[in-house]
Amino acid sequence: GTVGRMPVALARAAAPTRPSRLRFALRICGFVVLALLALFAGGFGWFADKVSNMTTPVNPAKADAIIVLTGGQSRLDAAMDLLASGKGERLLISGVHPSASRRQLQMAMGGDKQLFSCCVDIDRAALDTIGNAEESAKWVESHAYGSVILVTNNYHMPRSLLE
After folding, report:
1. Cα–Cα distance between 97 and 150 in angstroms, integer?
2. Is 147 inside a domain boundary?
3. Which pLDDT tens digit goes with each residue over 55-106?
4. HSE on the CB side for 163, CA within 13 Å?
5. Using CA atoms, how far apart are residues 158 and 163, in angstroms rounded to an integer?
6. Can you give the CATH number for the domain in which 131 is found?
7. Residue 159 in contact with residue 130, Cβ under 8 Å?
8. Burial 102-133 (b: 16+ CB within 10 A, else e)
9. Is the pTM of this model over 0.85?
10. Is residue 3 part of a domain?
11. Between 46 and 42, where is the model more confident?
């Protein structure tokens, strides 16, 4: 009886079985996941290095206007200082919470009331960085400004400029 029949052990070795295909697929998936994690870690390292080397200009060139993206008291103070020193004609505060009044904002910034009254515009429509970019672009276009100083944090600057 063994004519024309292959021994059972050889038959199993000749054709790949489902478990070995599954192991191969899992290895490929694992490699892809590790490669993506390595790319993410490398990209984060590059980003962290880039933003940690950014510095605030000591004496920025004069521009037509100043735009500050809300998110911290130091940003607002820096923008108001730039306006007070004549580095721009007007200041747009983008992304102000709808419930914040103009008076509350002026008091929080502690700036000159006359300067705030004449030269500060408030954008309450922007809810995120994309909204900041859209509302700021409308403001710049409506005033026909050619140059602006953008005030935000170092970690936020690359995305803000991109948007």
Report:
1. 19
2. yes
3. 677 778 899 999 988 776 778 888 888 998 989 999 999 888 888 888 888 8
4. 18
5. 9
6. 3.40.50.620
7. no
8. eeebbeebebeeeebeebbebbeebeebebbb
9. no
10. no
11. 42
